[in-house]
Structure prediction request, 273 residues.
Amino acid sequence: MCYNRKYRIGQTQLLGDEAMTEEKNVKSLEKALDIIEIVSNEQQDASLSEIARQTGLPKSTVHRLIATLTGRGYLEKTEAGSYKIGLKLFEAVSCYINNLELQTEARPYIAELTSHLGLTSYLGILDGDEVVYIEKLDAVSAMKMYYQIGSRMHAYCSSLGKCLLSNYSKAQLDVILEDCSFIKFTPNTIASREELDAEIAKVRKQGWAMDNEEFEKGHRCIGAPIFDYKGDIIAAVSASGDKRVLTDDRIEEVAEAVMKAASRISHRMGYVE
Prediction:
């Protein structure tokens, strides 16, 4: 009985310590965000003393937090010893703004694609070895109902993913696909890196990719890459539907329409062929 009681007390103590640690981490994060906001709001670079004054924190605490933020690139120390916003934060904000711009520019072309083909249209970007949907327009609705934005899909068995992966060299793909398990969802699913490499080569040659019932039986999807002003693939657009709607005799028609939409969006993003 004594042993069990001691065990329960020890377990309760452990849970309490974990909760305190978590709360401490959250407070540290809040303090770090406060520092970023102070530095970003300053018209001139902010000194450690000024940051400490505005946060009400001891200089030693501010120094520790700033050291972490500068180490991660979110702040930079100037020659004068003050601090300014670092490149890492600019990159993060720039990525967010670019995605917003991409969605805004792509939306009318996605709507036109859906209306013209009677298929569901998608806009996606790559995150690791997954595609993230950032826009979707369902063909069923004439009211432009967007949904499932933010959902993810395996890149290796989707038309969007194949398009996005075609932007990278073999060495880069080795890193991106390092943990890819190539799960076989249907008899048509790509089951190896060699098969995927062959599909990517096909995308580069013909300018579009196809998911031919690779993730879901009876479902097809055709996608094309979107380029930015540097000629890099930053996203992909696709049209998808049931095999009974996206029939064999429509593949060429749909591919041409999707490539045209991708080209027009690329042009809006500054790409010049």
